Amino acid sequence: MRGSLALLCLALAALAAGCGGGSSSSGGTAAPRRALDLMLDWTPNPDHVAIFVARRKGYFDAAGLRVRVRVPADPTTPLKLLAAGRTDLAVSYEPELFFAAEKKLPVVAVASIIPQPLDSLISLRPLPSLRALAGRSIGITGVPTDDAFLATILGHAGLAAADVTIVHVGYNLLPALLSHKVDAILGGYRNVEGIQLEQRGLRPTILPVDQGGVPRYAELVIAANANRLRRDRGYSDATRRFVAALARGDRAAGADPAAALAAVRASTDSTPSFSRRSVPATVALLNEAPCLHGRSWAAFGAWMASRKLLARPVPAATVVTTAFLPPSCRR
User: Fold this and answer.
1) Fewer CB in 10 Å around end: N or C, the chain?
2) What pLDDT does residue 330 have?
3) Is the pLDDT of residue 158 over 50?
4) Domain spans in the chain, listed from the N-terminal domain onward
5) Any idea which architecture 119-212 has in CATH?
6) Helices in the chain by DSSP H: which ranges?
7) Can you give the three-state secondary structure of 152-185, one letter per residue?
């Protein structure tokens, strides 16, 4: 969501170059593959490594799918497009599924891409404990979840909002930190901004929000249209096959780091130096993907309601289903 229009154009070019979907069968007449449109959350980046590996290694092809990866013109629209039937699947964030439920959008998470938080509190100064935040300035984007994350982190440390200076910097998180406009930022990703700072020769303190009292949640998920899953057996079957191929992509990314890096390099406009650091850091977070855990979603939904992010509690069963996950997730 922090990408610029220029990055979007470059990303579209990268996608166009890599839309072949992997190897195809030779000899004989292959059965037609089912077409699936997948809308990303924003520009292609290392967070989508499992998707890119599955495509590059032909796992979607092997599952009888022709997956077209699309980039949204507006990062707020993927779930709306999914609900309207204008895309088959969408990449989104766990909190957004709860917000969508409040709006009565028929969308449901069917798999995780990044099964744990990336959102982090990042400081250039050492933080021996969270109480060391007292008296410091913290830059946030201003989105509701950031305010709730910060309030929880401060409360976890026995602090209140009055103990820090909160600065709304929009999506200029890194510039605000590097220019010393703020002492720390909340909203940067450990595998993006954290690495960018390290590449500048800095040694940032990085605290994922779930280490500061926020319930663990999935940063990125695959969402499907709930109505279509109930009514369209072909769509339901294709979704199951997509998740199975994605699971193969997760395993392959972990087993073959070089292939994971090559897949991301072929599908994104990330610089080589950044990709070499970010891809392994991201792959290290995929151990539980594509699994989803209902209890974890229930706990996070209850936290959202307690922080007034939701007008009323949203049952986890309305925003997530484990019915399409591979057997390995049920062990």
Assistant:
1) C
2) 79
3) yes
4) 5-116+218-330, 119-212
5) 3-Layer(aba) Sandwich (3.40)
6) 5-17, 49-56, 59-62, 78-83, 94-102, 144-156, 173-178, 193-199, 226-231, 233-255, 257-267, 272-283, 294-306
7) HHHHHCCCCHHHCEEEECCCCHHHHHHCCCCCEE
119-212 has the same fold as 5-116+218-330 = yes
Q: Quick one: angle between helices 49-56 and 257-267, nearest 10?
A: 100
Number of other CB atoms surrounding residue 37 within 10 Å: 16
Contacts for 292-298: CB closer than 8 Å, 24+ residues apart? 292/109, 292/110, 292/111, 292/112, 292/115, 292/218, 292/221, 292/320, 292/321, 292/322, 292/325, 292/329, 293/322, 294/320, 294/322, 296/215, 296/216, 296/217, 296/218, 297/94, 297/109, 297/217
pLDDT digits (tens, 9 = 90+) for 204-237: 999 999 999 999 999 999 999 999 999 999 999 9
Per DSSP, what are the bridge partners of residue 120?
Answer: 188, 208
Q: In this structure, what token pair is assigned to residue 216? A: 């663990």
Structure tokens at 87: 């895309």
Pairing mode, if any, of strands 165-168 and 137-140? Answer: parallel
pLDDT digits (tens, 9 = 90+) for 60-110: 999 999 999 999 999 999 999 999 999 999 999 999 999 999 999 999 999
Q: How far is CA 217 from CA 98, 107, 146, 296, 304, in A?
A: 12, 18, 14, 7, 11
Of 69, 53, 17, 22, residue with least CA distance to 258: 53
Do you know the residue count of the chain?
331
What per-residue string of b and e applies to 274-306 under the rule 16 or more CB within 10 Å gives b? bbebbbbbbbebbebbbbbbeebbbebbebbee
Q: Is the dihedral of CA 236, 22, 41, 275 positive or negative?
A: positive
Indicate the burial class of 32 (C-beta count within 10 angstroms; 0-12, 13-18, 19 or more). Answer: exposed
- In 3D space, the residue among 193, 216, 205, 182 whose CA is nearest the CA of residue 130 turns out to be 205
Fold of 5-116+218-330: D-Maltodextrin-Binding Protein; domain 2 (3.40.190)
